[in-house]
Structure of SDR family oxidoreductase:
Amino acid sequence: MIVVTAANGQLGRLVVEGLKATVPAGQIVAAVRSPEKAADLGVAVRKADYNQPETLAAALEGADKVLLISGSEVGKRVEQHEAVVRAAQKAGVQHLVYTSAPKADTSPLILAPEHKATEELIRESGLPFTILRNGWYNENYLPTIEQALRTGGFVGSAGHGRVASAARADFAAAAVEILTSTGHENKTYELSGDDSWTYDELAAAIAKASGKTITYTDLGPEQHKAALIEASLPEATAQFVVALDGDTKAGLLGDVTGELRALIGHATTPIADTIASAV
């Protein structure tokens, strides 16, 4: 039996759909915070709230394989993930798969520390594991694309930093491959898109797809933060966005590894396809 945590999220739903195309639906369990919202998944649904460890034992009962999709609450994730790892140990899980971040154990990426700590917990648990260090999703930039289409441009502070993104569906397909095939135990995969791009190139691609003039304005970090706050973002959120752009500028998201393409057996989805859908 395969249990997918956070199965009602955008990545989780794609993984469940991919699994249903590969294994019988009766072998899949969607572990979700709100079971009533997952009735349309077409598989067994169990309650699993990362913030309620008492729900996790029942959620993972009988599981052979578990996909631990990282939580979204920055600052709480290590404790949340540890609760899942402990429940997986008690359930006798034979293979734990975790969605991490690029080069989590060595990168200064702002999101890396919680992923690094989780990876360490998993390795120390003694459970057979696979670490999927997911790069950035094309869909992360949909708000930027939509803003550019609406206003004619966007701002940032990423300079000429490159992003090797791929579609969320590509990363979901990689997780499905790991969960339904053999030989992946105790391995770590650095997953990224086949191509990388800069914000200037993103603007040019949006312009090409839409036929509009689209500009990218590169700001200093403080200017960028001030612009975001002026646009009604909370200060903490603005600071986080600026930090991510700083990481992009530093080249932390631009590595093209080829490992995602190798796992899914086909080219990754270019950002231009995501732009075309938005247009």
